[in-house]
Automatic annotation (TrEMBL):
Its cofactor is Zn(2+). Pfam families: ADH_N (PF08240), ADH_zinc_N (PF00107). The keyword Metal-binding applies. Residues 19-356 form the Enoyl reductase (ER) domain. One of its GO terms (molecular function) is zinc ion binding. The keyword Transcription regulation does not apply. Keywords: Metal-binding, NAD, Oxidoreductase, Zinc. Belongs to the zinc-containing alcohol dehydrogenase family. This is Enoyl reductase (ER) domain-containing protein.
Amino acid sequence: MGKGGISGDGENMAAWLLGVNNLKIQPYKLPALGPNDVKINIKAVGICGSDVHYLKHGRCGDYMVTEPMVIGHECAGIVAEVGSEVKSVVVGDRVALEPGIGCWHCSQCKGGSYNLCPDMKFFATPPIHGSLANQVVHPAELCFKLPENLSLEEGAMCEPLSVGIHACRRANVGAETTVLIVGAGPIGLVTLLAARAYGAPKVVIVDVDSHRLSVAKKLGADAIIQVSTKSEDIGNEVEQIQKAMGVGVDVTFDCVGFSKTMTTALNATTSGGKVCLVGMGHNEMSVPLTPAAAREVDIVGIFRYKNTWPTCLELLSSGKIDVKPLITHRFGFSQSEVEEAFETSARGSDAIKVMFNL
């Protein structure tokens, strides 16, 4: 989107991250509308764990906030203006926005893996501004028209759902794939929904939080297991997982990314199976790689997603996936509500997906 800046005209407002625990709604000057861009009136924005991390710590992984940045990247809205070359959408269309802009010149982009572009410009990843704003400007090719039977909130949910879809693709989940999911947070839950949509006949999910496990059960998990944070419990917990599955665990998705969760994933997965690391909780881990390698357990990683929005929209509009139960809290776009929404999301507990309605 470009870095933009603060405007004095007050026509467009955005939620600016000005520092740790410092979020303010302030004027936002949009970049110029290019011939292949569209201007979007943003109507729905979800809060992601990375957004909370930037607010609470000023960084997420290797990305650090060093100057004021508009936050938010899970979004949908209504087309307000189109560039001179745009043919795919028209003013008034409701669209879901894919938040990452590849360079389209590097080998990764040319090879189709634009999610791995080293020059990716991604909403609310420093220094790129995000989408918790009245309006944004975005490439038309990354704005996907919503089917009539989908809400703008469901359009915004395409972003987290895309992570689950991409993970299932990477792990080749199908009609004969038994699945274990470690972590029943928002990403674990969308991975559950995606695995079901891809035909997984049995899905077991584990977490430390009983409430989130109860949500997972309602969403269709065959079995739920509450685990601890203690490494010494791994052996017993793996036995519980394997007993609940009844057969071997073909694919495990670690949607947390801690040493303990990855060790559980490697130990629980059957010989010749696959572990997909989705969560990025720890940058470095101590895990039993050699025993897993001796059983030919493959490890794959994912980073964001690619070419997932059409699939998400088809799965949502057909009813194969329903993300509406994941939206647990809704807030408007005022200073007090923005602050309360982020505190609600940060607390976790009964909050799964916190959504803004603009």
